[in-house]
Amino acid sequence: MRISMLAPFEPNALRGLIAGVSSLERNGLDVLWVGEPYGFDAPTTLAFFAARTTRVQLGTGILPVYSRTPTLTAMTAAGLDSLSDRRAILGLGASGPQVVEGWHGVVYDRPLQRIRETVEVCRRVWGHERLVHDGRAYQIPLPAGEGVGVGKALKMMVPPVRPDIPIYIAALGHKTVEYAAQAADGWSPLFFSPSKALDVWGADLKHGTDRRAPTLGPLEICAGGIVAIGPDTRHLRDLARPQLALYIGGMGARGHNYYNDLFARYGYEPEARLIQDLYLAGKRSQAEAAIPDRFLDEVTLCGPRTYIKERLSEYKRAGVTVFNAEPVGGDVVRVIAELAEIAADA
């Protein structure tokens, strides 16, 4: 099991990570993700990390497919892959309608179709093909009668370093998870409960992997949560409450919140409604308090080394190959180093 972490969004915390990223690399960090919600863009930060590291893989976690053309997404990943000496991972996802329509000003339509076609375009671009794509979401070049009418099929001016940059898809819905298992190199679910995940997604993963090309290799699964290692760290799981309440309660409108739907599918349907009602009513602290303790135990790792080892083994049995850690309760480098050591023995 490899170890990854998501870079913080807050600028001062991000600068601190930049200063210490070489130590993290030396002490067991395998993958560093940079997200892109509606703050700084991810590729700029990743390029900076590329200059400060030599081994760690660098992933977008995630690029929304609505924020760039598929061709620009392919170009961005190819550029990062070249600058980092083959260490790029392209993390893709659909984001949600509030951000896509409210921030990017783009209609949130056909999310799975757009992900599927973005993957197809990226692999054609990285294969240094002359790009022709006739899809339902994207037509490249534009067909006759659209635009100025002088578009022509092109290929990248320079050959990409790799034709097979890894693609990870962030997905929670059944059809998108199935597609990730079929066509992506990795799947990145948020709020992954190893004891319940296969009940929710097991059939989707099987349907996808049954149609998976052997050349892709086994599906990587990247999931995790808050980590604190030590005998008096269980209380630190409460640090997950604000994020959980935000996503379950406020990340989307009623009927359009994938995280709320997932929480209900995990068996917390009454709590899902309550948390959303409280959060949307402006009662955030009450929404945080309404998150059940048992769910915090499912999606965090806070405890002594023996407990951490048991939980990592549970994640492995559920198929997780990359544990995505959010270190708390101590020096980040120390937590990552200890977690990597435990994972090697789990």
Short description:
The protein is α/β, with parallel strands linked by helices and 346 residues long.
Number of helices: 14
In total, the number of domains comes to 2
How much beta, percentage-wise?
5-15%
Q: What is the H-and-E element order?
A: EHEHEEHEHHEEEHEHEHHHHHEHEH
Output the structural class.
Answer: alpha/beta
The dominant shape is globular
Order of adjacent strands in the largest pleated sheet: 1-2-3-5-8-9-10-12
Biggest pleated sheet: 8 strands, parallel, barrel
The name of the CATH topology of the largest domain is TIM Barrel
User: In CATH, what is the class of the largest domain?
Assistant: Alpha Beta
Q: From the alpha-carbon coordinates, what is the Rg to the nearest angstrom?
A: 20 Å
What is the first-to-last residue Cα distance?
Answer: 9 Å
Report the count of strand segments: 12
- Helical content stands at 40-55%
CATH architecture of the largest domain: Alpha-Beta Barrel
State the fourth-level CATH superfamily of the largest domain: Luciferase-like domain
